[in-house]
């Protein structure tokens, strides 16, 4: 049954992660996932809250294994990180996302960039910068058409080398965003020293606003501070019109979530742009 809902996948994910034995099973299967063509990307629209138009997409990896079925990235990415498999997997994702973006850009020339999640292990790997440079040259995509999403938790314990690399990427023209913002307890004053232009507010804070006053106040403060420091803000996990209303009023720049679109296959995105 291919058309199972997302909830069904979650159910299997939980069963799997409960069992250490299954971690090894996943690891073994993951080793061959790239070669066996089991990994593919979905894309989720990012909406400009001012113009109400899609300006970009976030690439989200998917894995469908013949024995394990669909395994959520929330389950297999950490395993890929532990085993180092995230390096070839991340390279595959980066390349594929760039290729697909160039195809979409031909259909909709107003698209601005593709957002790609970069794992800390991948970012720290020796060849990251060279691989990225080789791929973008090969594909003919500009760095300014790529936004690298790095999680706040990781950025928090950045060493000298990582900051140097961030600056190099910035010089090349890449966009960079701090993903899952608000979950890492970092200080804005630290972050403001980093060459990053986008703050992506984690879904945990977008949930239940405006009803949940704590979340509302936190989101308000993040957006206000971000704006005053010159950051662009993205809110993820918007599911209801009430959330959009509030975020729009607060001056959040970009919205992402099921309210606009679920992550979709490349074919579906392509067709929706043609129509
Ligand atoms: P993330 O980067 O914070 O991605 C957002 C997650 O929230 C995605 O889950 C997305 O499908 C989901 N989401 C988006 N809008 C909504 C909404 O309105 N409601 C709800 N309930 N969920 C929403 P997904 O695709 O399962 O990915 C989970 C995490 O796995 C990602 O969190 C990211 O940390 C990681 N991940 C996914 N793809 C990649 C990838 O290509 N590379 C790396 N390194 N990590 C990835
Ligand atoms: Ca999931
Ligand atoms: Ca992300
Ligand atoms: Ca998140």
UniProtKB/TrEMBL annotation:
This is EAL domain-containing protein. The chain holds residues 670 to 944 of 944 of the full protein. Residues 23-275 form the EAL domain. The keyword Membrane applies. Keywords: Membrane, Transmembrane, Transmembrane helix. It comes from the Bacteria.
């Amino acid at each position: 049954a291919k058309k199972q809902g997302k909830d069904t996948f979650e159910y299997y994910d939980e069963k799997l992660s409960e069992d250490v034995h299954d971690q090894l099973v996943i690891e073994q299967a993951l080793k061959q996932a790239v070669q066996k063509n089991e990994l593919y990307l979905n894309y989720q629209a990012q909406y400009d809250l001012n113009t109400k138009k899609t300006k970009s997409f976030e690439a989200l990896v998917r894995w469908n294994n013949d024995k394990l079925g669909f395994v959520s990235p929330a389950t297999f990415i950490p395993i890929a990180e532990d085993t180092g498999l995230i390096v070839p997997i991340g390279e595959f994702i980066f390349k594929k996302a760039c290729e697909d973006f160039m195809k979409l850009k031909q259909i909709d020339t107003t698209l601005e960039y593709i957002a790609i999640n970069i794992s800390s292990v991948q970012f720290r790997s020796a060849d990251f910068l060279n691989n990225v440079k080789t791929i973008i040259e090969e594909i003919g995509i500009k760095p300014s058409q790529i936004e690298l999403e790095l999680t706040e938790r990781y950025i928090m314990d950045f060493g000298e080398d990582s900051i140097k690399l961030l600056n190099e990427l910035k010089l090349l023209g890449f966009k960079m965003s701090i993903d899952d913002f608000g979950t890492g307890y970092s200080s804005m004053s630290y972050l403001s020293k980093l060459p990053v232009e986008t703050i992506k507010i984690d879904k945990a804070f977008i949930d239940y606003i405006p009803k949940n006053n704590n979340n509302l106040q936190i989101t308000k403060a993040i957006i206000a501070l971000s704006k005053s420091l010159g950051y662009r803000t993205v809110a993820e996990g918007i599911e209801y019109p009430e959330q959009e209303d509030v975020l729009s009023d607060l001056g959040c720049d970009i919205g992402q979530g099921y309210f606009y679109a679920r992550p979709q296959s490349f074919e579906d995105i392509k067709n929706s742009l043609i129509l």
